[in-house]
Amino acid sequence: MSLPRLDFPTLLHNAAKWPLPGKVLAGCGLAALVLLMGEVVYLSPSRDRLHGFEAREQALQQQLAEKAELAASLEARTDQFRAMEGKVAGLLGHLSGQSEVPALLEDIARLAVANGVWVEGITVLDEEPRPLYIEQPMQIGATGAYHDLAAFVAALGGLPRVVTVQDVALGHDGALLRLNMLAKAYRRTTQSATVREAVDPGQPFVYTPSFVRDPFQPPALQVTRVPGRPALAPDLARPRGLLEGMTIEQFEMVGTLSLGAQAFALLRAGSRVHRIAVGDYLGPDHGQVTAIQDASIDLVERFPDEQGGWLERPRTLVLNVNS
Known about the structure:
14 strands, alpha+beta
């Protein structure tokens, strides 16, 4: 059994004879079909394109607002960029255009002597080129007391030529400290050699050990230090004594001794105890004992400054009550 074939022409021809409800129903179905076809073929793609245009319009409006804000601040940004260029030019102008390793080595040796530090070795490493400058690293090993090493590092960073100190390591070396550090000097490259503007380096940092505790010594063994002041040169032709071959930090005051009207101080260095009086010399910096009290010893050291003169620095050794 098969379904009867639907004859649309005949059906449409006879539509005029349909009753009114049938005509209305057929008209509604036909209108719905036309609307559905129009939605699928024409309206839906147009609506998608409209949504895309609206999203693009919002993105363009946002970009326009950002560009307008950037244009409004362009003058301020230009002034800021010029100021930054001036700072960079000034910093590059502060750098030397040629290698100054020999002069820098002389400065390191001079600062070491001025601060009572023994430089054990300096290894000049290979240069490291950078876009605007060239780094000259040097590995430095030095031995000395804590405050002397700190003053040496501070003076090294305050040199007229640009020097930075990195990778600082401290360790015990007997009664003293051993310092290992990486110092870097800088010079201009050939590309930046035309920049010659000067820059004010500012006030250099000066390490002052006054009232600063040595973290590597117990409080009872602290040595009071004050900055040096101008002094006369010591007698360099004077024969040096045995106790001048040791640093002040190697001595420990363990007591006093009186013989009549004369007072003596008892200092221990290692396993030996030494007796000193006012006027005796102590330490490598021409330190001369000026006073002996029951609980301390006062002395004055003389060491060279950075201008060819001499400085005087009072120091105090405190009695170790636990000895």
